Amino acid sequence: MPAAAVSAVSVADLGASYGAAPVLAGVDFELATGELLAVLGPSGCGKTTLLRCLAGFERIEAGRISLAGDVVALPRVHVPAHRRQVAVVPQEGALFPHLSVAENVGFGLRRRRPGRVARIRECLALVGLAGLGERMPHQLSGGQQQRVALARAMAPRPPLILLDEPFGALDAALRTDLRQAVRRALKEDGATAVLVTHDQSEALSVADRVAVMEGGRLRQVGTPEEVYARPSDAWVAQFVGEADLLPVLGTTPDGRVRTAAGAVAGIGTGTRAVVRPEHVRLTQGGEGVTARVVDVEFRGHEHLVALELPDGTAVRARSLRAPAPGSVVTVSLTGAVALVD
Ligand SMILES: Nc1ncnc2c1ncn2[C@@H]1O[C@H](COP(=O)(O)OP(=O)(O)OP(=O)(O)O)[C@@H](O)[C@H]1O
After folding, report:
1. Closest residue to atom 18 of ligand 1, CA basis
2. Which domain holds residue 37?
3. Ligand 1 centroid vs 46 CA: distance in angstroms?
4. Is position 290 within any domain?
5. pTM
6. Which of 194, 252, 286, 338 is the most buried (most CB within 10 A)?
């Protein structure tokens, strides 16, 4: 029998506070080697504090943190940051301005380490900056500087890389490009990483698993698909993606749930249906419930249509066409919706 694999990161019942104010409570998760976890939550929920506890910048008040099977934090035990060797990529790269790109990437590698130059070159290639080693940081764009910061973090092959809103300072188009580049680089190098973000599309598109945090607690930890399609509660449903919660009015003879927007297959049990805009089909006439178009938001590739159902319930739909505000359309539900209480 092979020995059970040791988690790269194990956090058990973690609690932390600043003075008398509790910030984290009962935080539990495990991370396998090579896994990428996104911690997703609104501003002030404790994401940065969690990273600081993992890195060793904060002491913990309850619970335990282990890295590769070694306990690094207990309420009375604190392995300092430099001995944990966890790498941090901050929001803005904080590169050394007087060092070249290659010297920045090699900063954590001992001068005489065999293969140092090759590892620097490899990390620059992993982040898509092959050939730019001789540049100075000010000769790079903001996105390129963040890539260098990631290469610098990866170079010594740390047991864990922490990324704190690494795309926060960049504009929208660049963020989308960079997040896939970051995911690719971490995966190709087999790095274990925790990324914090308040941006749900970022968390869903980058991570292997997402930990949804609110008020210092993890409400759900799961794959992006699980968190989106099977949210554990109403808060997660509405924080991760767009959702309208429609009361379940009963069940149909074939086992679907009835709502004010029509019947639909339900996943799990609960008193409310998590209806996302892609579940709502709009037609002109035909079978369904009539609804009034309240508002239409242009999204570039589609429209988000706000609707009012006959009983006054609000629901949103995705639509390629833009119905006129005030007009009446027919609504039906498609796919399968999660049920929550
Ligand atoms: N050094 C500190 N001293 C006291 N309170 C702090 C300190 N740092 C953070 N806090 C408080 O702890 C809570 C959690 O902060 P934290 O920075 O971990 O949240 P966050 O989720 O990372 O937020 P954001 O997304 O805005 O960065 C907040 O209420 C914050 O005001």
Report:
1. 46
2. 9-86+158-236
3. 6
4. yes
5. 0.91
6. 194
